[in-house]
Amino acid sequence: MARCTAPVNGHRTASGAAACPACRGGRGYSYGSYSRRTYSPPSTFYSLESSSSGSRSGGLTGGTRPRWSKAGSTVVYTPAEIRTLTPVRENFEKRANLPDKRDVFLCHAWDDRKGPAKELHDFLEASSVSVWFSEKDISLGSNLLREIDKGLAKSRVGIVLVTPAFLKRIEGEGVADKELSALLARDLLVPIVHDTTYEALREVSPLLGSRSGLITAEDTMKIVAAKLAELVAP
Q1: pLDDT (tens digit, 9 = 90+) per residue, 42-58?
Q2: What is the Cα–Cα distance from 36 to 21, expressed in whole angstroms?
Q3: CA torsion 128→89→179→159, rounded to 10°?
Q4: pTM of the prediction?
Q5: What are the sequence ranges of the domains in the chain?
Q6: What pLDDT, on the 0 to 100 scale, is given for residue 204?
Q7: pLDDT, tens digit, for every residue of 129-185?
Q8: How far is Cα 117 from Cα 161, in angstroms, rounded to an integer?
Q9: What is the SS3 assignment for the chain?
Q10: Share of the chain above pLDDT 70, in %
């Protein structure tokens, strides 16, 4: 049987195909079947998650999966995100069996409590993540700082929603600054940058700005929540 010469000479032209002893006679590119025999799929995973914001999560998105991502997950991560989240996951696993702990403590500016903080909270709760959230966990008349201390002590991971309102609060050394100081003392902190930049964060908090995290300019809030849900999954 004549052998196809595509691997050596190529069949990109009609004359190339006609010169091949296996493909002459009008059969076209048998080179394609050769390619299918030798092709191996790439190691990159893809997600078809759509995004109205035009972020990297719209359409086909390349990325990899961390070790804690369950089989069948469509959530993809950049290598930088995996490096950032891996130590948080490792510390979470050490605390996973502690009783009466919330999965996540949500630190946010007061002005965001009915906006992006509420949105992030709702996405997390919809993914079965237990969240300490001031809007539901601090009752009227309670001592704010005392309740925050309790929330920090009862949570396995802290997430900080960094917004323009949060940056103003940090500059003014408000309650968010106290929460931030407590969270920075542990390697259990994930900044979520929303409607601002890491450059703006570093100007008011170089220490927090040195921590990598997730950013909604690259992923929707829903996908950020999905990554956090995987991070704290049993």
Answers
A1: 333 333 333 333 344 43
A2: 20
A3: -50
A4: 0.68
A5: 6-38, 80-231
A6: 86
A7: 999 998 887 766 666 566 677 777 788 898 999 999 989 888 776 555 666 666 676
A8: 7
A9: CCCCCHHHHCCCCHHHHHHCCCCCCCCCCCHHHHHHHHCCCCCCEEECCCCCCCCCCCCCEEEECCCCCCCCCCCCECHHHHHHHHHHHHHHHHHCCCCCCEEEEEECCHHHCCCHHHHHHHHHHHCCCCEECHHHHCCCCCCHHHHHHHHHHCEEEEEEEECHHHHHHHHCCCHHHHHHHHHHCCCCEEEEECCCCHHHHHHHCHHHHCCCCEECCCCCHHHHHHHHHHHCCC
A10: 62
For residue 51, what are its two tokens? 């995004």
State which amino acid sits at residue 144: L
Rounded CA Rg of the chain = 25
Average pLDDT of span 121-133: 95
> Distance between CA atoms of 203 and 122, rounded to whole angstroms?
30
Q: For residue 6, what pLDDT band results from cuts at 50, 70 and 90?
A: very low
CATH classification number, 80-231, choose in 3.40.50.10140, 3.40.50.170, 3.10.20.90, 3.40.50.1980 = 3.40.50.10140
Angle at 173 between CA 135 and CA 195, to 5 degrees: 65
